[in-house]
Structure formats: structure tokens, C-alpha cells
Amino acid sequence: MIRLENVNKAFGDLKVLNDISITFESGKTNLIIGQSGSGKTVLLKSIIGLHDVDNGAIYYNDRNFTELNHKGKKEIRKEMGMVFQGGALFDSLNVKENVKFPLDMFSTMSEKEKNKRVEFCLDRVNIKNANHLFPAEISGGMQKRVAIARAIALNPKYLFCDEPNSGLDPVTAIVIDNLIQEITKEFNMTTIINTHDMNSVMEIGEKILFISKGYKAWEGNKDQIFNTKNQALNDFVFASDLFKNIKKST
Amino acid sequence: MNLFEHVGKFSRFLLLVLSKPEKGKIFFSQIVREIHKLGINSIGIVVIISLFMGAVITLQTAYNMLNPLLPDYLVGYTTRESMLLEFSSTIVGLILAGKVGSNIASEIGSMRVTEQIDALEIMGINSANHLILPKIVAAIFINPFLYVLSVFVGILGGLAAGYLTSTVAVSEFIYGIQYGFIPYYITYSLIKTAVFAFIITAVPSYYGYYVKGGALEVGKASTKAVVNSSILILLANVILTQILLK
Predict the structure, then answer these.
(1) Inter-residue contact B74 to B65 (CB < 8 Å)
(2) Which PANTHER family match (chain A) (predicted)?
(3) B125 and chain A: CB distance < 8 Å anywhere?
(4) What is the span of the domain harbouring residue B68?
(5) What global pTM score does this model have?
(6) What ipTM describes this predicted complex?
């Protein structure tokens, strides 16, 4: 479980996050949605500690991440897995080495155990016969799946995904979304996904935080989002004719 | 950003880089890989440039020694001194600043813009230390070998040029390269080479590590890295020469 209490963040005079408070539960896919520039990436980066918040608190279970020193944060970071927008696979390492990297750095496993774990993680994301390929040699969808495999290699308690299906075709995007949801439930992780893809919202939005202009504008789930009275959210969700027609027909 | 801000930021950056590596075994394997990438892969360019520079120094010296009172062995002596004192350390340093420096800045910069550095940070790894310290250690280790190679090949090039153009007899040239030899000059040049190796790796890494933006900014950072590391090499050359040869 990750809890945010009155999180604020500004860059100079520009206030990007204003008093954001919310609890992200474990075993659920928690989505942060909002328009480009609304502050959702800054929020995600603040949660994982790539940005220091100006004030407010971020709790990982009962541990106040914002008050921890470098060593304490490092310990929590070992419990995190992150899937970046572009995959962020290491160019100089092949698929197997990428997934094995966190194990090499932090586990005390034997080489045999590490290889077995890598095999399990790659199998879990349906990657086969690609161990020797480098990131530049595989498709965007495969890169995302390898990134997920790398993120779960150390059995993280917390999984973060920054726009995991951007740049993917709709079919692959759904596959990635479902994969993240399955893994979240299987390992009872607290998963936070940053997205502005409405298909993802409808597919895996078990808990949704909508951010508008740096403020928490709405909180709910995929079933509630269709009937919301929140104007900003309506403008965001029903921006396309497709969704406008779906709403009309329902 | 002004000079003082850069100095402060660079100092903080070095504190991050020069900390204890996460895992010794991985650190060692990275050093081996960097030695190959930064050192072994540079042997070709060092050999080619040294060979031709040695030849040119020999020919220019020979063609400019018009006074018959000057002995022929001075050609060999001049070639050795030029290679030993300046060319193989400073000029090769400048060449490597271009080749290795741009490579490092673009590699680290690309890792920054594609969030690979963020990925390391999220894992709880000191990314600056993990990515950059092996490069610095590898360069400081391998560049002195490149220096020695450059001196050897340069003198060989001079000998070949002298022989092939009949400007200086082989025996005179060999006598010249042994004449008035001061072993301390090698120590002096090796110290310079080690300092230049640090500059060649640390400065481009700094520019790459703090890149913001995309491919265009990576290119700009690469250019800045080469220009500034070259200037720093020249500055360090003056300072070290004054300190070590006074």
C-alpha cells in the first residue's frame, strides 16, 4: 500500500502538484490519469523518489519515504520495479542480461538460480527464444514485456509503469495491460500506472486518480468514471467521438 | 550556467562517481569491458597517427638542419624527445578526447534521455558510480600503455622515414634516440597521461550525465564535452609541466 498525504511540488514559481492525497492499494492496478502537462509524470516520479516533494508525505506501508535518508530510500527502492515509457532497457545488454541485471546487483542467488529466475520472468511475460537479442533488435511490445520481466525479477512489492502501452498497437496494448494486471494480482503488488489511454482505463482501472492542473480532481474506478459529474474528467474521458457515442448509447 | 556553477556541479558529480561500487565483481567486469572499449579499440588510431607523426617529425627535423655542424643523430634525438615529452601524451590525449570523449558523452547522454539512468536509480543503484567509475579507472589504467605504444611506434615511424628517404642513417638515428636520455621524462609523461585519461573520461561523462532533452541535446553535449576536455587537457599540460619539470 502506498499513501500520499498532501503532496506538493513546484519547479521555481510553477506549482505542479497541489495537496495530492490518496491511498493506492496492494493487489490492485491503480491508475493515474490526466492530460499531458497535468502533473501525472511529476507525481509518479515524486512517488518513486526521482523528484523530492516540497512538502507532504509519501508512505510505503508505514514507512515515510520522504523522511528517509539515502540509505533508507535505497532499501525501499530495492522493493520497487519500474516499467518506463520507452522500456529503458540497457542497450549494451541483451534480453537475458537485462532481466538478470537486478539479480546480479542485489540477490545472493547462485548463477543457476539466477538463470532459473530469468527464465521464469521471461516465460511469465511470454518471451521465448529471445535471450540473446539486444533491445534494438526486438519490437516495442517485446521491449515493454522484457521491461516488465526485469521489473518483477526481484519480486517487488511495488510496481510502477509510466505509460506502459504508449506507442503500441491496440492489441499489444491490451496484452500489456492485462499482463500487468495479472502480475499485480499474482504477486499482490501495489501497482501504479501512469496513462492517458482510455482503453487502459476501461480495461484495468480498478482505482483511478484523475489529475487536472496539478490538483486531484477525481478518484474512483472504471465503473464510476462513466457516470461522473466532474466536468474536467468528462472533458478528458469523452474527448473522442467514440466515447461520446458510447456514453450516449448507455 | 557560469564557470563556478559548473565547478560546483562537477565536484558534486565526482563525489557521486568516486564512491564505493555496489558489487566488486560487477565493477571489475565493467573495468575489463571499458579497457577493451576505450583502450584496445583505440590502438588502431594511436598507431596510425603516431607512425605518421614520428615520420613527419624526423623529416622536418632533417630538412631544417641546414648547418653542417649539427650532427645527424640530432634527428633521432629530436624525434624521441618530441614523441616522449609531448606528442604521445598530449597530442594522443587530444585525439582520444575527440574519439573516446564524444563516445562517452553520447553513450551516457543517450542513457539519460532514454531513462536508462533513471532505471538504475529506481533500482537503488548509484548510476554515476556504476556507469562512470569503471570508465575512469579503465582509462587511467590503459592510457599509459597507449602512451608507451605511441612512443615506440612514433620512433619506429621516424626511423623508417629516415631510412626510406635517406635523410638520416639508421645508425645515426639509433644513436640519437639513445643520446642524452632522461628517464624522468617517461615518469613525467606517464603522470600527464594518467591525468589526461581522467579528464578524457570524467568531463564527457559529466556532460552526458546531465543532458536534458533529446537527441539534439545529446549531440550538443558531445561537442561541449570534446571542446572542454581538450581545453582542460591543454591547461593541465601547462600546469603539470610547470610543476613536474621546474
Answers:
(1) yes
(2) INTERMEMBRANE PHOSPHOLIPID TRANSPORT SYSTEM ATP-BINDING PROTEIN MLAF (PTHR43023:SF6), PROTEIN TRIGALACTOSYLDIACYLGLYCEROL 3, CHLOROPLASTIC (PTHR43023)
(3) yes
(4) 23-245
(5) 0.87
(6) 0.82
